[in-house]
UniProtKB/TrEMBL annotation:
InterPro entries: DgcN-like, DgcN-like_C, DgcN-like_N, P-loop_NTPase. Pfam families: DUF1611, DUF1611_N. It comes from Sphingomonas cavernae. Residues 53-132 form the D-glutamate N-acetyltransferase-like N-terminal domain. It comes from the Bacteria. Residues 138-331 form the D-glutamate N-acetyltransferase-like C-terminal domain. This is DUF1611 domain-containing protein.
Amino acid sequence: MKDAYVAPTLPQPYLLFLGDVVEPGYAKTAFGLRDWAGSKCVGEFACDGAAVSTGLERMSPAEARARGARSLVIGVANSGGVIGDTWIAPLVEALEAGLDIVSGMHMGLAALPALADTAAAQGRRLIDVRTPPTGIPVGTGRKRAGKRLLAVGTDCAVGKKYTALALANAFFARGLDCDFRATGQTGIMIAGGGMPMDAVVSDFEAGAAEMLSPDAGSDHWDVIEGQGSLFHPAYAAVSLGLLHGSQPDVVVVCHEPGRTAMLGTAGYELPSVDETIDLTLRLGARTNPAIRCGGVSFNTARLNDAEAAKLIAAESERLGLPVADPIRGGAAFDRLVENCLG
């Protein structure tokens, strides 16, 4: 049985770098590491003017190094994955303080002369986790052994990673044989391995997903982190390739109630949960005719407890499916887990 692709081991603990971000949605890497790998994070560091914080202690690279940090992680996932000019001096400071730099940006660290020269002079590493492995095959559509769950979304940054991680943890807690399969830079940093799907050439997306989730035992579950949205005018390609290649038996649709426009793309309304379920099942049936929707995951961070509970109950009744916020947990989440397991 062929093992899934595993990324190189990353130097930990981390200092989280927030750049000059003012929109929390673009700091999802930092928040994801705080929430799911908090024991591996010593603090945060940012440019002057940054308006976003993870709530971790703000410290300089030198202070972080003294606390045991081994690398600075760029905790930003901005549109296009670019490293801004204002980031260069802080990143050089981190290298000079003795930290490696770990990045999930599309722009390669070594392509920036100031970073490449400083890293060479200081004997530090520049690590790009958004670099796919060589030799990715074209997808075959061959049915593979094992069970698979894929988190899909109405949009980007609606909770697909958090949902997959929470479901994987719930499966583990039930004693099931399970792997969380990361498909984005934050998930790879949390899990220590995965496949950077949005850095794979489109013709090989499905093959990369097959490589990530190979044949497994009949009782084994791969819980796969989703990417983008089938409805997104910029990112639908990676979503479709991942759907076809992962061949999920179960999908969970992720949504942020109250969001009306697609992130980063003006003029495009968000699709409904109903539309997302319908399109996902129709397209997913191409490589797994037995695909089904296990339920819906809501990101209710903007709602209070009473508002969230009322909405979750109403939508569950309307859809005829379990609806839950994995972060809130509770009985609603237990019902979602049980329905996914069938």
